[in-house]
Amino acid sequence: MTDLTELTASAFWRVTPPDLDPVETREWLEAFEALLEAEGAERATFLLRKLLERARARQVPLPPVFNTPYRNTIPLEEQPQYPGHLEIENRIGAAVRWNALAMVVRANRAHPELGGHIASYASAADLFEVGFNHFFRAGASGDLVYFQPHSAPGVYARAFLEGRLAEERLAHYRRETAGRGLSSYCHPWLMPDFWQFPTGSMGLGPINAIYQARFLRYLENRGILSTAGRKVWAFVGDGEMDEPESLAALSLAAREGLDNLIFVVNCNLQRLDGPVRGNGSIIQELEGLFAGAGWNVIKLMWGSDWDPLFARDRDGVIVRRLHETVDGEFQLYAATDGRFNREHFFNKYPELQAIVAHLSDEDIDRLRRGGHDPVKIYAAYHRAVRHAGQPSVILAKTKKGFGMGHWGQGKMGTHQQKKLDDEALREFRDRFALPLADEQLSSLAFFRPAEDSAEMKYLHARRQALGGYLPARAAAAPAIAVPEPAFARLREGSHGREHSTTMIFVQLLAHLLRDPALGRHVVPIVADEARTFGLQALFRQVGIYASFGQLYEPEDHDELLYYKEAKDGQILEEGITEAGAMSSWIAAATSYSSLGVPMLPCYIFYSMFGFQRVGDLLWAAADSRARGFLLGATAGRTTLSGEGLQHQDGTSHLAASTIPSLRAYDPCFGYELAVILQDGMRRMLEAQEDVFYYVTLMNENYAHPAIPAGAEEGILRGMYRLRAGGSHERRVQLLGSGAILREVIAAAEALEGAHGVAADVWSVTSFTELRWDGLLAAGASAAVAEARGRREPSRSWVAECLEATEGPIVAASDYVSAVADLIRPWVPRGRGYRALGTDGFGRSDTRAALRGFFAVDREHIVRAALAALQDS
Ligand SMILES: Cc1ncc(C[n+]2csc(CCOP(=O)(O)OP(=O)(O)O)c2C)c(N)n1
Ligand SMILES: [Mg+2]
């Protein structure tokens, strides 16, 4: 006998243990049926619960409880009336399907390299259409919809019908460089009036959607924005659910009771190469996962034409047959005709054969999966939007390449299919009853019903009833004035007191949080490292966001800075999930656009666990046109001395140099930090520039001087002369950044004193900004100019600073030498530029020992300078 305790939840649905006493089993079942008949479901549930309690108390092994049969969750009798006009909607849907297909096929006939997808949208079309016709609310208090990225052709095709995208744009699908095309996937950077949420990288859509829904609650609970009634919809592929990010925040969504969140997983049972779970069932597996995480699961499996079949099935033979069918077989049934399905699926058991005996092979061919029946889809959405207390997931069973006939439906390679011959196009037309002549088919003409047709009137009326069109992205939000005083104090220096830049930032943050205008818009975010960075004082000042408030008396309640959780708490303490914290940051950093409320997220993290850990989310942030601050704390390879290899960051600035809308800085002194942050806030909050910031912060304590006169411009552009050397015969230029600037200053002193060499010292606040500046000065490509603003060719800031100086140039930072090397093309020639850095593997030791080991300490800088002089 199978031991049920050994079965995983996903395997359980397929394995039924042998029945050792069928007569007894029947007696129990009949008793249960009689009870159900006589007293109803509520009583039946009660008794089952009692039985379960007793079984648990007696420690009887129970089957996993997170799976239900392979059927629709919503029974026929609970299905609401369909409120739409099905025939008109079908015609609209057919036109959208056709235009999506024509767009991709046309692009690839002309340029086979362009790519694109037909089969994914073909499976998702009905799921989208029911949303567009009946659920997705647009406008200022509308819903936020995350579209499955490679179904974008369908979203374009609909916008074309709606008159929002010209035919010219569809004709330039995936051809964007001339400025009139359409982007491959959902990219706000490329289509800033259209797409809101970038989902092109699988897994980021789902996790972003969860934190977006959570952020809506955060704004509501903090009294900043009423978000009640707004929904976040996320359309996700079943293959996409393999991504760790897709699953990472499921329990957060349930824990927070995010009933404003609806996932629709398009379960076409296929990913790119083949079936998602050929030997199992992705739907049952996902059901177990979501239900186990605490979600409301709605299985949308079978279309209305299955209802009469289930009604005829007294013994549960359909479900039995479904349960013994693995997804690889379902895929085969999708790719084959009614006759094959009858022979191989239905004819297995005589009872099952009888159930479909009245159906022709064509009827069997037309039996629909739930995700292709608007009536069933509507029922699922209707239930999901009304469900209270939990997020909902709709597991929609569909066919990949639905309607693409024997060229695409359910085929292993259908994901990549982008060409259809005339016969296939004719079949598609007939299948969806499209009013297209053969010539229109072969020329792949786009099709839009006449403006005064019933279809177009209906389409516009539905969207107007739902508040307008979508997706649509807003570009600006009300400006917020940046306060002056907090920054002014930092410009004066620390008057000899020793602080780390992290501490200075935290004090500044505390000030900003108190500002009457800006304060409430600041969103401090941490991933369980608030104490590491000395932020615990903020716990008490603004509280940690907790949607249920604080249900316990904190252990440290009698201390001044106790761990205060509050419903209107301001800090987002995400726990140990950098991906989650970044997703929260993105929600806040795009709130100016998606919610019309500008926020200033400040996510402070171990710099090592930023770019290398969540680099893809950082690109998604840039794509989203995010605005906010990322603070890479305990930064540098030698400054965070004791933690060793996996904690020591020597590369984040190199990675940061690749994102064009990111401004990255590595400041050393408090006034530099102040100038950078203030300028950033002005750009993001006042001037509405789509930029974001990465600023590294250190935990080394030292005194901070006052700002030298006239240094601002250089601080922002990337370098300025901090001090002029003496008047010796030999001269060097020393460049230092962040933590290593003080080594450079010490090296300059040694050179001036012991070696009789004049050393000018330059503080480099940003090698990366200097590089962008250099690229622009050299007449950068359109791609750079687009992100950074066009500039006439001119002298670079590096050249401007260094050309009039004398002597070899030596630079050092706490990052790999490639960072200081970023500016080499603009360093005046023949000056023996030496870039020092922390290449190699990190390790633990004291700061002094590490700087010696990596050869970025004062002695090595002196040596490098003397060697450069020798060579010159
Ligand atoms: C992070 C990432 N890895 C890989 C891809 C390439 N990719 C695009 S679609 C796809 C298959 C998606 O399958 P599924 O999620 O089931 O969607 P379907 O097309 O079946 O609806 C893959 C692997 C990607 N876009 N992002
Ligand atoms: Mg799939």
What can you see in these coordinates?
The protein is of the alpha/beta class. The protein is globular. The relative contact order is 0.08. Helix 27 links the parallel strand 11 (600-606) and strand 12 (629-633). The chain has a six-stranded parallel sheet, sandwiched between helices. It has a five-stranded parallel sheet with strand order 1-2-3-5-4, with helices on both faces. It has a five-stranded mixed sheet with strand order 16-18-17-19-20. The chain contains 37 helices and 20 strands. Bound molecules: thiamine diphosphate and magnesium ion (MG).
A few lines on this structure:
The chain is an alpha/beta fold and 872 residues long. The chain is 42% helix and 10% strand.
Shape descriptor: globular
Evaluate the radius of gyration.
Answer: 32 Å
* Average pLDDT rating: 95
Class by SSE composition: alpha/beta
What fraction of residues sit in β-strands?
A: 5-15%
Bound molecules: thiamine diphosphate, magnesium ion
Query: Which range best describes the helical content: under 10%, 10-25%, 25-40%, 40-55%, 55-70% or over 70%?
Result: 40-55%
DSSP E strands, number: 20
Number of helices: 37
The largest β sheet comes out as: 6 strands, parallel
Which key terms come to mind for this protein?
single chain, 872 residues, alpha/beta, 37 helices, globular, binds magnesium ion
Element layout with pairings:
Elements: H1 9-12, H2 22-57, H3 86-110, H4 119-135, E1 144-146, H5 152-161, H6 167-170, H7 204-221, E2 232-237, H8 244-248, H9 250-255, E3 261-267, H10 282-293, E4 296-300, H11 307-312, H12 317-323, H13 327-335, H14 338-344, H15 350-355, H16 361-366, H17 374-386, E5 392-397, H18 405-408, H19 422-431, H20 438-442, H21 454-465, H22 485-491, E6 498-499, H23 501-514, E7 522-526, H24 536-542, E8 544-545, E9 565-566, E10 572-573, H25 578-589, H26 591-594, E11 600-606, H27 611-623, E12 629-633, H28 652-656, E13 662-665, H29 670-686, E14 692-696, E15 702-703, H30 712-717, E16 719-723, E17 730-736, H31 741-753, E18 757-764, H32 767-777, H33 782-788, H34 797-802, E19 809-812, H35 817-821, E20 834-836, H36 847-853, H37 858-871
Parallel strand pairs: 1-2, 2-3, 3-5, 4-5, 7-10, 7-11, 8-9, 11-12, 12-14, 13-14, 17-18, 17-19, 19-20
Antiparallel strand pairs: 6-15, 16-18
Helix pairs in contact: 3-4, 3-5, 3-21, 4-5, 4-17, 7-25, 22-29, 25-27, 31-37
The chain binds thiamine diphosphate and magnesium ion.
